[in-house]
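=== RUN LOG ===
request id: a7f3
mode: sequence -> structure
chains: 1
length: 162
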Amino acid sequence: MSCPTTETPPPEIRAALDAHTTLTLAYADEDGPQACAVLYAVADAPDSVPTLLFVTAGTTRHGRALLAGDARVAFTVQSDGQDWTALTGVQGRGTCRLLEGAERTTAWNTYSSRFPYVEKSERLRQAMDRTGLWELRPHWLRLVDNAKGFGHKTEWTRPNSA
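=== RESULT ===
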């Protein structure tokens, strides 16, 4: 099943994003393509499209690549160890931006609600205060759900996405 371009993704895509906490972020820099795993929380942007919040320092390879200007990324979200007949996951493309000021504070509340252990450790909380909080705004999402049939897909494209 494919979804036409709509304002918000179908509920099954949002449910799949909410069901996981780790995404594999793919990006490219002057050394070529690379991927890394980051923990994420789902938040709603003012336009009600889910955004993915993750923490990383600007000194990491992916942090430097995102700060360098072209913050376009691809990503996947899925659980490890799934049987192929029930394999479920999300593929996506979007752009990342570093959050600052009031936006960071609001997003941090969402992130720390998803990962409450961060606030329980003074050392970890202080480290997170010094680390960048990023927003990934998807413009294309694909849910693959083999439980509904091998290769079953539901897709969403943000209206007017470039």
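=== NOTES ===
The helical segments are 11-18, 61-67, 101-114, 117-120, 122-129.
The chain has a mean pLDDT of 85.
=== END ===
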